């Protein structure tokens, strides 16, 4: 039995009253939150294994929108069942086979088209958490329409040297105590990016933080972790503001 890779307790989440609304775009449902003033800048938020309805991810969407971006979290699982806290980790590898974070291109295209044609977006960034962080890393190698990316504790996949030729500025956020991603892997990522990457990138490790730390809502935060969580979010927003 594999250890639970998400050290935060997903069972006792506080509820969250969302500020945005749900839309349907072609074959996808999505959660959208618009800022108070009009803008031609947008951010796609890619959810983790718990899916697009998970309260923490909607909280992040609203948070990003509050900084002046049209923000959208599409259902990258296309209506299939997300992972839930009551599922058994022994089944996780099979579930992942059917939910491959490298197979998100079609959904990304649908959302980019919607943001451009329906929302008037001219510059679009992307941020993703865990499963979504892996998807962001993949998309930043493939999709030049994404002006900047933030991959937040996405496991590092080392299948080829092409994993490092990012098309646009990308920021990688990790927790020091994340037991799904070792510091060795992070150092290797840094070496490879130095070698192959032609665009701005940044890697930052937040002291003492476990997997999932950056998306906690305020009432779910441990006071010792709060400064790091807030710093990671500020860093994420600063990166987006710099390039989008």
UniProtKB/TrEMBL annotation:
Subcellular location: Cytoplasm, Cytosol
Pfam families cross-referenced by the UniProt entry: DLH (PF01738)
A single GO cellular-component term on record: cytosol
SUPFAM superfamilies: alpha/beta-Hydrolases
Residue ranges annotated for the Dienelactone hydrolase domain, each copy included: 28-242
Gene3D superfamilies recorded: alpha/beta hydrolase
InterPro entries found in the cross-reference section: AB_hydrolase_fold (IPR029058), CMBL (IPR042946), Dienelactn_hydro (IPR002925)
GO molecular function: hydrolase activity
Database matches in PANTHER family: CARBOXYMETHYLENEBUTENOLIDASE HOMOLOG
Family: Belongs to the dienelactone hydrolase family.
Name the UniProt record assigns to this protein: Carboxymethylenebutenolidase homolog
Provenance organism: Chloropsis cyanopogon
């Amino acid at each position: 039995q594999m250890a639970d890779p998400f050290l935060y307790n997903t069972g006792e989440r506080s509820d969250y009253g969302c500020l945005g609304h749900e839309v349907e775009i072609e074959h996808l449902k999505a959660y959208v939150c618009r800022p108070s003033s009009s803008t031609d800048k947008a951010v796609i938020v890619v959810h983790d294994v718990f899916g697009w309805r998970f309260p923490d991810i909607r909280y992040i969407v609203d948070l990003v929108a509050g900084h002046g971006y049209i923000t959208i979290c599409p259902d990258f699982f296309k209506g299939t069942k997300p992972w839930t806290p009551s599922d058994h980790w022994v089944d996780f590898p099979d579930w992942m086979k059917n939910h491959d974070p490298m197979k998100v291109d079609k959904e990304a295209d649908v959302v980019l088209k919607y943001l451009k044609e329906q929302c008037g977006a001219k510059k679009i960034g992307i941020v993703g958490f865990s499963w979504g962080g892996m998807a962001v890393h993949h998309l930043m190698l493939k999709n030049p329409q994404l002006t900047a990316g933030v991959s937040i504790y996405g496991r590092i996949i080392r299948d080829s040297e092409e994993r490092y030729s990012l098309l646009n500025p990308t920021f990688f956020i990790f927790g020091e105590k994340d037991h799904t991603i070792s510091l060795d892997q992070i150092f290797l990522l840094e070496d490879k990016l130095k070698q192959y990457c032609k665009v701005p990138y940044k890697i930052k490790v937040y002291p003492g933080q476990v997997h999932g730390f950056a998306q906690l809502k305020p009432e779910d935060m441990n006071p010792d972790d709060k400064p790091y969580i807030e710093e990671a979010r500020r860093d994420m927003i600063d990166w987006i503001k710099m390039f989008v």
